[in-house]
Every structure is written in structure tokens, then in C-alpha cells.
């Protein structure tokens, strides 16, 4: 019989399941971010304990490993507070003619629609070290970002 018609098991044809990717660089978090990580770990541990069987718990355990790693590597960092854009800063800026306010937070805490921007995001990296009144290059334009206020 041809090898094409032989089927040993369904398991050998499944795609491998890799660990969830950890963002590169330091795991800076705000106090709020650290609390969110702890809450996520607690919720996932409860879901794993309540899982019906080992197969149902597999994806939960995978996600739990990610959050355990993020909690273990978290570096709680306070905002600078000196008027210079840095981690934890609340920045009011004008970009593409629109004024908006963002707070620079950790990767896992980021929620751009709510004004929480990851410190590793391109826009955040472009603003790092700037002060109110400065105009900064971004996306190929020399005066794309105007920093209005830093808190």
C-alpha cells in the first residue's frame, strides 16, 4: 500500500503549539500594570483548577506560564516626574493635527484606544526624552509630533 494512504495517528499531523511570545526588552510595569498581571494569574489559576479535563486545561496552562513569566520579570517603575517624557509619563501631544493625551505604560498594560501606549511602541520611542514645546520627527516627517505637556 502506498504511504500516501497510510494514517498512523491524527496527532502527528497537528501543528506544534509554541509558547506565547514574550516581548523583547525589559518588562517595565506601572503599579496598575503589576496589579493587572497578578489578577490575570489568579484568574487563570482558578480556571485551570476548574477545567473539566487535562485537554481543556492545556491552553490555560500555556497562558498561565506566560503570565507567571511576566510577573517574575516585572520591574515596577515610577514615572519620571521631571517634565521629560519617559516611562509612566502622561503626555499631551499633537499628531496629524489632532491633540491627544497618552500615558506610557508596560507592554501588557497597553490599550491604545484608552490612551495607554506601550513604552516600546514606535510613537512612544519617538517621544522619549522630549519636553513640552518640542517638535519631533516621526514617520518621515521632521515636525510630525508636537509635545504640548508632560506630566
Structural description of this entry:
Keywords: Kinase, Transferase. The chain is α/β, with parallel strands linked by helices and 151 residues long. It has two domains: 19-76; 90-150, Roll (Chitinase A, domain 3), CATH 3.10.50. 30% of the residues lie in helices and 25% in strands. Strands 5-4-3-7-6 form a five-stranded mixed beta sheet. The model has no long low-confidence stretch (mean pLDDT 92).
Attribute tags:
single chain, 151 residues, alpha/beta, Chitinase A, domain 3, 2 domains, five-stranded mixed sheet, 3 helices, 7 strands, 25% strand, Tscrpt_elong_fac_GreA/B_C, Tscrpt_elong_fac_GreA/B_fam
Summarize the structure.
The protein contains three helices and seven strands. It is of the alpha/beta class and 151 residues long.
Q: Look at the helices and sheets and give the structural class.
A: alpha/beta
Order of helices and strands: EHHEEEEHEE
Radius of gyration: 22 Å
**CATH architecture call of the largest domain:** Roll
Choose one word for the global shape. elongated
CATH hierarchy, class of the largest domain: Alpha Beta
Tally of separate domains: 2
> What's the tally of helices?
3
Topology:
Elements: E1 27-29, H1 31-50, H2 54-73, E2 74-76, E3 90-95, E4 98-105, E5 116-118, H3 122-127, E6 135-138, E7 141-150
Parallel strand pairs: 1-2, 4-5
Antiparallel strand pairs: 3-4, 3-7, 6-7
Helix pairs in contact: 1-2
Amino acid at each position: 500500500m502506498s504511504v500516501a494512504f497510510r494514517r498512523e495517528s491524527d496527532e502527528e499531523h497537528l501543528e506544534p503549539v509554541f509558547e506565547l511570545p514574550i516581548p523583547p526588552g525589559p518588562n517595565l510595569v506601572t503599579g496598575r500594570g503589576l496589579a493587572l498581571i497578578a489578577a490575570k494569574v489568579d484568574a487563570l489559576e482558578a480556571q485551570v483548577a476548574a477545567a473539566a479535563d487535562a485537554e481543556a486545561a492545556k491552553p490555560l496552562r500555556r497562558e498561565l506560564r506566560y503570565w507567571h513569566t511576566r510577573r517574575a520579570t516585572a520591574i515596577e517603575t515610577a514615572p519620571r516626574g521631571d517634565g521629560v517624557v519617559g516611562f509612566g509619563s502622561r503626555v499631551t501631544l499633537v499628531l496629524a493635527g489632532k491633540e491627544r493625551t497618552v500615558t506610557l505604560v508596560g507592554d501588557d498594560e497597553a490599550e491604545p484606544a484608552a490612551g495607554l501606549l506601550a513604552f516600546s511602541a514606535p510613537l512612544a520611542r519617538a517621544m522619549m526624552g522630549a519636553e513640552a514645546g518640542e517638535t519631533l520627527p516621526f514617520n518621515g516627517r521632521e515636525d510630525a509630533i508636537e509635545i504640548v505637556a508632560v506630566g
